[in-house]
Amino acid sequence: MDDISLISYYFNVLASYASYYWAYYRDSFRDYPYEVQTAVVIIQWSSIAVVFLIALIEKKGHHRRLKERIIEMLEEHYGEAIDYVFDREHNWPMSRDEIYGRFDVDEQQAAKKGLLRNKLQKQMMCMIIYQHLIASGNSWTNRRKNVHLMLNIFALPAFLEQEVAFANLFIKMKALAVVRAFKLPVSPWVINMLMASKKTRVKRVAMYLSVAGSADSELDYFETDFFDKNSCIYDEIELGYMLNRRRDAGMKLPNLAHWARLQKRDETKCMFVRLMRRFDQKEYCYQLEDLFKTSKHKKLIEEIARTWGYLNYTAGEQQLIDIMLTQPDDTKVAIMHAVTRMSSGKSLTLLLDGYRNSTNPHVRFEALRCMYNYNDDGWRMLDELEAEATEEEKHFFEFFHNPITISRLDLDHEQAYHPSVETVFNLSN
Amino acid sequence: MSTWLAIYYFFSYIVFGYTLAIMASYLLFVFLSWSMQLRLKVDIPDDEVIKYQLQGSPLTPAVSIIAPAYNEEVTIIDNVNSLMQIDYPDYEIIIVNDASSDRTLELLIETFEMVEVPYDITMRVPSKPIKRVFKSTNPEFSKLVVVDKERGGRKSDGSNAGINVCSNRYFVCTDVDCIIEPMALYRMMWTVINSHVPVIGVSATMLMSNACVVEDGRVVEAHVPWSFFPMFQQLEYLRSFLISKLGWSRINALPNISGGFGLFDLDVVVKSGGYDNTSMAEDVDMLLRMVTYMRNTGQKYRVVQVPKVCCWTEGPSSMRALYRQRIRWARGLYEIVVNHRKLFFNPHYGPIGAFTLPFIFLFEFIAPMLELSGIGFMVWLIFAGGVNWGTAALLFAMIYLFSVLMCFILLFFDYNMDAVNWHNRRRSYIHLAFAAFIEPIVYHPIITYCSNIGYFQYLSGQAAIWKPIQRKGVKKRDNAQKPTGNETKPTT
């Protein structure tokens, strides 16, 4: 009997047993009431599932223990050397020989055989180096020269590129995070491959990977309506990093107002307008005028008003005044705070209108707060209003009789950052 | 057909069908939760990655932590120190002293070098008047704000006062005695930061700290409690967070962000009126009002559940404390059903109106009453001699094994998501499995009893009594036993 016949024979035997037990299982409770039949099925399947789950947890546990052993082994072998490399990164670039010497590795042997045997070891090594990087306190702007040399010893750059390109989504995202932290250059074909992904997150991370460099051509993404979904805070953080890096390197920052106008989605426009505020792009404020006039998006109008106010773009004040009274309450408040920052004197009557014409107590209170913060004329107006206030309105003014802090809700993030009692009240003096 | 026969058929067909429907819904939760886990595994990276990406950016949103305190003089300093250990680039801690009659406020002032300051307070949501606000003269405690207010009597009033003082767009509401995981804010804010739709609330997994070892305000060893009630509550909380809430979160239908630890969008909270000081289930009530506001104004939103443990709290360890707590929950549930009835079975309110609230009504609100009537029916059958003991045992085994299966699924989910960093995982799982085998017989009937009492008290108009749980305290490690640092295992 040849092999195939033998396999076929055993298969038939197995199938016969299976069909016999299936018939037995199916028919054994046939004459019982439906409750019994249902209960038996649930009991049987629950028992099987419990056993299966225990086996699954055990199997996963085995895999986890294996990983822990590998990490332990790698830490023992290379942990000290990795720390040394990170320490020296702050001070001077190490030579190739110095790094190989520190790891006690023969360069030729490493190139020929490779120090890490399999994929799992390489993955674990990436994680170890990544954790050491974080522990060393390296910021986004620090150099990675020594780290790149160190990664080459273990042939990790090529491995990471493969993972980024071909691994499943879970591993891919992990690898992308590691690649970004190590500031490894990624081949254009990998970037293109990632940009073709259906997953928005992958596409965005790939974009931020590619704009990590300093070439102006890398900013081309923003010259189109790239964002196929609303932007999120993560996008703002990433763009903030990118712009900050360029500013630190002494490069000219791109025109964010132009980018804002190119976007289709209002939320994305808002993000670029907020970033303008952050990066003090007063020179491009005039480019927002079109958006301001044509937009019907409440939040966008608010953001533009805040930006003009913060950057003291006085040319836009009249437009703010013109539209204020027709806007929803939140937008009114944003506009009042914007004109208060400008404090040109033109808008004091607007604040008075804001107080008198609104039925919303919050808007009325904010109008008074703006008067308080405006200038001496604002204070005088506040006093006059208080004198003529009805009993119900009196409580609005109680707030202004004591020295107050400026509302931190309306401050810029940096100003509101950890406002200690010293900075707010100058108690140290 | 006689009445007795009708009752017999009701239990034979309707209640049996109801039981199968509950089982089917749990299996659906398992499926949804699993699907959510797959999504979160990609979307939420390891803690280190999150920290690395957020810690250096000034654009990372700031968070306020609001913790009301009433007569907490024994633990307040440790608790505030614990809150200060949280790892996040920009946050403030607002301790709201609800007119404590002990030395809570004095201790805070002395220890943290606080001085009374004039403060910008806008009464955004109703609360009892705020008397004074304190800040520290020591820059080391610059994150701390202490609010002294008139007695409101409820945690919700204290939380509202905190909301009025809070200066950041996102805030976390917690209890002052909760132990918050150092990475909790990173984990929660990551979901906010990465969402393309505004996230109005984030729920985080909470567990019992009763048997945990705490050092310097941090849980350094997570154990399953051996004491009777906390052990079952550990299992119950895990099941609720990792199966139910994660499942609801998958379809954006999470009905509740725990009052013990949850993150909210200040703007939406203010617009929906903050916490209701009269409600017994103020956390569910507020989330439902937030959802109502978002749906009525046509805005998109998300409410997310974070599977990793972010907070530890001491659960009731005596029958009396558990009884009071569960009665309050039952009354709260009844209130929700009555007060938010227009949301039930109403697709205008999205998945929460179409699925979650009907589920809560059918399978959580009605279930204790049906169980009680089932027990009564069983007793009647025993006296009437109408019990087929073989079938009864089989049906009992069916429910029992299904319940055990759910617990094992839960253990698998915990393992898969690494939700809890157990000190000894194998031992903890054996312990939880042990609890799973006895829970349906011992613990579940007590909970059913408490729920029915709660419903009865609500219907009979008895006044609700709100008493804080008497805490026994958690294990603290002496300095001599401090870990060397080599015990930390790297995340894989």
Could you walk me through the main structural features you see in this protein, from its secondary elements to its overall organization?
The complex is a heterodimer of chains A (429) and B (492). The C terminus of chain A is likely disordered. The N and C termini of chain A lie far apart (101 Å). Among the domains of chain A are: 47 residues; 101 residues; 104 residues, no CATH class. In chain A, helix 2 crosses helix 5. Chain A is 68% helix and 0% strand. Chain A is mainly α. Chain A is built from 23 helices and no strands. With 492 residues, chain B is of the alpha/beta class. Chain B has a domain of 338 residues: Spore Coat Polysaccharide Biosynthesis Protein SpsA, Chain A (Alpha-Beta Complex), CATH 3.90.550.10. Chain B contains 14 helices and 13 strands. In chain B, the strands form 2 sheets. In chain B, strands 3-4-5-2-1-6-11-8-12-7 form a 10-stranded mixed sheet, with helices on both faces. A 3-stranded mixed sheet of chain B has the order 10-9-13, with no helix packed on it. In chain B, strand 1, helix 3 and strand 2 form a beta-alpha-beta unit. Chain B is globular, with a radius of gyration of 23 Å. Classes of the chains: A mainly alpha (429), B alpha/beta (492). The interface between A and B is large, with 73 and 64 residues.
Question: What is the topology?
Answer:
The complex is a heterodimer of chains A (429) and B (492).
Chain A: H1 3-27, H2 34-89, H3 96-102, H4 107-113, H5 119-135, H6 145-153, H7 156-166, H8 169-182, H9 188-195, H10 200-210, H11 233-248, H12 256-262, H13 266-278, H14 289-294, H15 298-310, H16 317-324, H17 329-342, H18 348-357, H19 361-374, H20 376-387, H21 394-398, H22 413-416, H23 421-425
Chain B: H1 3-43, H2 47-54, E1 63-69, H3 76-84, E2 91-97, H4 104-111, E3 114-117, E4 130-136, E5 144-149, H5 155-165, E6 170-174, E7 179-180, H6 184-193, E8 199-208, E9 213-215, E10 218-221, H7 228-250, E11 261-265, H8 266-271, H9 282-296, E12 302-313, H10 319-339, H11 350-365, H12 367-384, H13 389-417, H14 425-459, E13 475-476
Parallel strand pairs in B: 1-2, 1-6, 2-5, 8-12, 9-13
Antiparallel strand pairs in B: 3-4, 4-5, 6-11, 7-12, 8-11, 9-10
Helix pairs in contact in B: 1-7, 1-13, 7-13, 7-14, 10-14, 12-14, 13-14
